[in-house]
Specification:
This protein is mainly α and 213 residues long. Helix content is 63%, strand content 4%.
Length: 213
């Protein structure tokens, strides 16, 4: 009976033992090929993603490089520019090394108090400006004495004269008394000769005084 069933089974499927082994090997080969088909696209995708990431990194590097170059160009342009102390604003001054918003504001404020800078060296008088910073920036600055606002000595009152940073109270009092006695004052030299101003003070104020009226 068992022999009959075996022969019937064999007859039904029509496979010998060798044929079944060959069929099994063929099945393994088909499964393997199907697996490779799914795996290879994954490898290709991973490779493509890696290349994409490299492109992004490269683009980012290019952007950073461009931005750095722009900053260098602005600094280079600022280094070549000569700044007029009597016409610049605080933003223009901040391109100078060592000059931030505080010092630039003080430079402008002192300029307004003086009526303009007659000499670049007057920056040494700005509160909080280090000597090292002055030496670093002085070659990149200029002044024009034509832009200085002058005090009409023979008409100015006490407040106008006292507001000027280079005059002390005793200077102002002496000028007004001398003017009252002598009438018109002709020059700084006249005030020095008559002991109204010291030579040092006269040298500092001479660019700011108008004796023509």
């Amino acid at each position: 009976m068992a022999r009959f069933a075996s022969e019937a089974f064999k007859e039904w499927f029509g496979y010998t033992r060798r044929e079944r082994r060959s069929s099994f090997i063929l099945l393994l080969f088909i499964v393997s090929m199907a697996g490779i088909r799914f795996i290879v696209p994954g490898v290709r995708m991973k490779s493509e993603l890696t290349a994409f990431e490299k492109d992004i990194a490269s683009d980012g590097s290019v952007t950073v490089t461009i931005q750095e170059n722009k900053v260098r160009q602005r600094k280079s342009a600022g280094a070549e520019t000569i700044i007029d102390l009597n016409k610049c604003d605080s933003a223009s001054l901040m391109v100078l090394p060592g000059i931030g918003p505080v010092l630039s504001a003080r430079i402008i404020k002192y300029r307004n108090l003086l009526g303009g800078y007659a000499e670049v060296s007057q920056l040494r008088e700005v509160y909080g400006l280090p000597e090292e910073t002055y030496r670093l920036i002085s070659a990149r600055l200029r002044t024009d004495r034509e832009d200085v606002c002058k005090i009409i000595v023979n008409k100015a009152d006490y407040r106008q004269l006292l507001r000027f940073p280079y005059f002390e109270r005793y200077d102002v009092t002496a000028i007004l008394k001398y003017r009252e006695l002598q009438g018109k004052i002709e020059s700084c030299d006249e005030m020095v000769e008559n002991k109204i101003l010291s030579k040092e003070t006269a040298d500092r104020v001479k660019w700011y005084l108008d004796f023509s009226h």
